Amino acid sequence: MLIAPSFAILTMGSGDYLGSTVRDLTLANALHRRGHKVVVYWMLECNEELADAGIGHRMLCHGTRYHFQRPSEFLDRVVGGALFLLPKRLRVRAIQRRGGYVERLLSNMLRSLFAGPEPDPALARRLRGHIAEDGVTHLLAGFGTLGPLAMAAQGKDAQFDYALTFQGDEEFAALATRIGLGEPFRAGVRQAMTRSAWRAIAVSEDYAQRLVEEIGVSPARLQVVYNGVELPGPGARPDFAMIKAAFPALRQDTPIVLYLGRQESEKGIDLLLYAARLLARRGQAAPPMQLVICGATAKGQGYRDVLTDLGRHLGLAVHHAGTVAPELRGALYAHSHCVVYPSVNREPFGLVVAEAMSHGTPVLVPDYGGVAEVIHDQGRSGGLSFRTWDSGDLARQLGRLLEDRALHTELAANARVVASRFSVDRMADGVLEHMGMRPQPYRAAAGGAGRRA
């Protein structure tokens, strides 16, 4: 008798990896909606609000576990448990006020996984116990970095297999190198990949190549499965009044240029400000636009404060906000002339870019990393690219989007078609087929979850 597969998603709720967390919970929702049993095991922080009703949740460990270089059961279970009685916004605010604290926690977590002969033995035993209690047959680790923990939990006789997904692991690799664990990190990840029943998943072709170059994994042990986004259904655009309520000074008759995503230095938002200033220098010939910047931050207000000061110094009128609700996020995509994603990082993918195109909005991205793959499909393009790190070229391409109506119309018409390549169903099908399972038909879920910027 065949046993129906039961899934666990092992992920981290840290704000540094919000895009990765969204991907993992989107996959969890997709599997659950197809009738599979799904439970999410959280590390450091949790984002249960991203999950559909009916999905189980367990806090595998709190961030306090890694306050010191050696994992602390007391700080994890007792102190961490008590802190989690506080509202999440208060916890996040307290951590962000302590400069470098998140990096400290992540550094100590890496030490526990890669510095010794066994990766955090007590946590591996806890994970194994949860898996046995929940009847999990397939553990999906949302980061390749967590591979050694999954491998240790599996041991030699566990009744489950695990699959690894790489998304954002280059940041862990860089941090491991900074603390003197570069080679143990790479060796540990490679060993966990070898022990897995399946090839590891990379979220773009470019990212797969980056893993080969930087971590030394074999390309034969990698499979590309692109991330998925919820495609908006047919219907009228959201009312502009929703945007007006959040940004009273915005006008509907002037093009909106939007950046939406994490406000951190690696996202290159300052390049967008320089590009806007270069266009403004054209005086009367400058194309009219309204610049909107919004999204969460994981490391405090430092970079946001820099952006505010820089915009003021450059004489730009910037409509600036933090986290936006899912409904406002969709309205901003739908009413924006274009979305600019000016990252200075070699991005693994680009969820914001796929989301924007799904609303029929052209995008502008660097010609570097997995994000550059997202805007093209079978000869169609849903946006333009600019030379990475080049604010002058960013200004030129942005000017084209604002001034060339025929070009903008063509890209907007292509955008939805290109974005359909990254549907949630395609991602879920790809993951299931990769693990040798026939995808089950979709069924309506009892409750849905929103997405936060």
TrEMBL record:
The keyword Cytoplasm does not apply. Residues 25-230 form the Glycosyltransferase subfamily 4-like N-terminal domain. Residues 249-416 form the Glycosyl transferase family domain. GO terms for molecular function: glycosyltransferase activity. CDD domains: GT4_PimA-like. It comes from the Bacteria. Keywords: Transferase. InterPro entries: Glyco_trans_1, Glyco_trans_4-like_N. PANTHER family: GLYCOSYL TRANSFERASE GROUP 1, GLYCOSYLTRANSFERASE. This is Glycosyltransferase involved in cell wall bisynthesis.
